[in-house]
Each structure stands twice: as structure tokens, then as C-alpha cells.
Write a structure and sequence with these properties.
- The protein has 188 residues and is an alpha+beta fold.
- The protein has one domain: 3-Layer(aba) Sandwich (Glutaredoxin).
- Helices cover 53% and strands 13% of the residues.
- The protein has nine helices and four strands.
- A four-stranded mixed β-sheet has the order 2-1-3-4, with helices on both faces.
- The longest helix is centred in the C-terminal third of the chain and has 24 residues.
């Protein structure tokens, strides 16, 4: 993906508050319920707060999607813990050309995060569910069903999924921190 496209998409993205406000009242309540249910630990805040490289992140999501409801607020909590993470939210259906480029197993999946360097060079993308999220779903069912927005989510499942997303943010940060290109640019 080209940096120019990613910069434009990031610029078109919404803040978390504006993204959630675009949903219906029940959708907003579902997102808020999960957001209120999860907190970062002090160790997680310290880890994320120690990030040194800027990470521009584009979240391709659906306000209506049960997986997004259960993971989006976790992703937002991570982004809030560092001034080095600039997270913007895009609706998958409103940005179909980007979503098409991010198909997983030939399907339009959400949420998918696109991680970019400070200059919007593509770094990585990750989605639609973390390993713990898939394990929890597999334990409950096998098949093509999507969880209903607003369904209760056990705290241990949320915490494990948060840890998965945090691992991906840390992996991307370390990739950027160790990048020869960026180390030369920053003299470190």
C-alpha cells in the first residue's frame, strides 16, 4: 500500500468518539459498555507509555459488528495510553476500496488495523480477530456466526483479547524502533 493512500485514509478517519457517535443509540451503548468494562493494568500503561516511535493506525471497522464492539474499545484503550499512537476509525462499507485490499480468506472482515510509520509507510496489518478471540468463539461454536452486539463478554476473554492486541502494538513499535531507516532518520 502506498504511503499517500494511507495518509489520505488516516486523514479521513474519525476519532473514536466521532466514530461511535455515528452509530445508533443501542450501538453506542454496546461500544460504551465494553469500553467501561476494560482497563489497562499499570504495567500495560507503562509499556505503551514508553513507546518512542509514532505509530499511525487506521482501524477499518463496522459500528454494527459484534467483533468490532468486543475489540474496538480495547484497541481504543491501548491508543489512549500513548501520545505516540494516532488511531483513526474508518467504516468498512464507506471505504470499500480499502476494505477490498484487506480481505482475509476472501472475505471482508472487521476490525482490521493498518499500522503505519510516522511518514505513513506501511508497516503491518492485523485483524479480524485475535487468537484469544478465536479460541473463545471456537469454544462456544464452530461456524460462520458473528457474535451479537451487546451480548455479555466475560472479563477474562476481554483481558486476553486486550493482551493480544497489545502484543501487536508492541510488535509494531519494536519493528519501528529497530528500523534501520528510522534509526538513521532519528540518529538513534
Amino acid at each position: 500500500m502506498q504511503a499517500e493512500l494511507l495518509k489520505a485514509k488516516h486523514g479521513a478517519g474519525l476519532s473514536y468518539a466521532d466514530y461511535c457517535a455515528a452509530g445508533t443509540e443501542p450501538q453506542q451503548e454496546n461500544w460504551q459498555r465494553i469500553y467501561d468494562q476494560i482497563q489497562l493494568t499499570d504495567a500495560q500503561k507503562q509499556l505503551i507509555g514508553g513507546f518512542e516511535r509514532q505509530i499511525n493506525v487506521i482501524a477499518v471497522s463496522g459500528i454494527w459488528c459484534g467483533d468490532c464492539v468486543q475489540q474496538g474499545p480495547l484497541i481504543q484503550r491501548i491508543a489512549e495510553a500513548s501520545d505516540k499512537i494516532d488511531l483513526r476509525w474508518l467504516d468498512r462499507d464507506e471505504h470499500a476500496e480499502l476494505a477490498e485490499m484487506l480481505k482475509i480468506n476472501a472475505g471482508l472482515r472487521v476490525p482490521v488495523l493498518i499500522f503505519c510509520a510516522e511518514d505513513f509507510e506501511f508497516v503491518s496489518w492485523f485483524g479480524d480477530r485475535t487468537l484469544h478471540r478465536y479460541r473463545a468463539m471456537a469454544a462456544k461454536q464452530l461456524g460462520g456466526a458473528c457474535p451479537l452486539p451487546g451480548a455479555p463478554v466475560p472479563q477474562d476473554e476481554l483481558s486476553a483479547t486486550l493482551a493480544d492486541w497489545l502484543d501487536e502494538f508492541e510488535r509494531v513499535h519494536l519493528l519501528l524502533r529497530l528500523s534501520g531507516r528510522l534509526r538513521q532518520l532519528h540518529g538513534d
